[in-house]
Amino acid sequence: LALSSSVSGGNRNSAEGESSSVLSGAQNKAVGRESAVSGGFQNTASGDTSSISGGSAINVSGISSSVSGGYGNKAEGDFTSVLGGLGKNAASSYQSVPAV
Questions:
Q1: DSSP for the chain, written as a single string
Q2: How are beta strands 44-45 and 96-97 bridged, if at all?
Q3: Which residues, in sequence order, are bridge partners of residue 14?
Q4: Which tens digits make up the pLDDT trace of 44-57?
């Protein structure tokens, strides 16, 4: 656990970023500073102040970006969001990608 970080439950979760948190799920990682993963499976939030709400195989590397769930989604641009779905990628900054 990093400074001021927390893991509330689940299985094999890790909070490596400063003030990061993982609430539940399995094999989730909150790596970015003040990043958060709410649940799901094999999700990684590596961007600072990034978040993942659930789903599986999701990666958020952009700063202040978020993915709301789904499978295999990515938010690589800064200040982006992906609202779910399958294999979506918000690669450009300030982009919002719908689930469909």
A1: --TT-EE-SSBS-EE-STT-EE-SSBS-EE-STT-EE-S-BS-EE-STT-EE-S-BS-EE-STT-EE-S-BS-EE-STT-EE-S-BS-EE-STT-EE---
A2: unpaired
A3: 29
A4: 999 999 999 999 99
Report pTM.
Answer: 0.95
Q: What is the mean pLDDT of residues 56-79?
A: 98
Pairing state between β 51-52 and 66-67: parallel
Residue with the two structure tokens 């961007």: 47
Top pLDDT among 28 and 99 is at 28
